[in-house]
Design goal:
Distance between the termini: 23 Å
Mean pLDDT: 94
Strand order of the largest sheet: 1-2-3
Pfam family, one: DUF6407
Helix content: 40-55%
Number of helices: 4
Order of helices and strands: HHEEHHE
Low-confidence stretches: none
Number of strands: 3
Shape: globular
Length: 96
Amino acid sequence: MTTHLQAFVVDAKRQIKGFDEQNVECIREIVRKSMAFYQMKSYEEVEETQFGRVHSLHLHSMMEENVLAKVVKLAMNQEEGLSLEELYNSHISRHY
């Protein structure tokens, strides 16, 4: 599974113009692509507020959460990259 995830992340990074491993929006785009590619039931919700856009991640299962956490680490090319909590500023709902 890790090899398949690595290949997916490398391909997704190539598809994003001007991809930056330190840019939160680029990493979130990889997360969105992986949820679509792997047909996950988890989803991202974006809410417009007076303070700007708030991104929330709704997780359907522990398995999907673990896969997305691994995708983030691979996308950042770091073993100790951002966690999903940090990436979404703690706006995470777990539905399991």
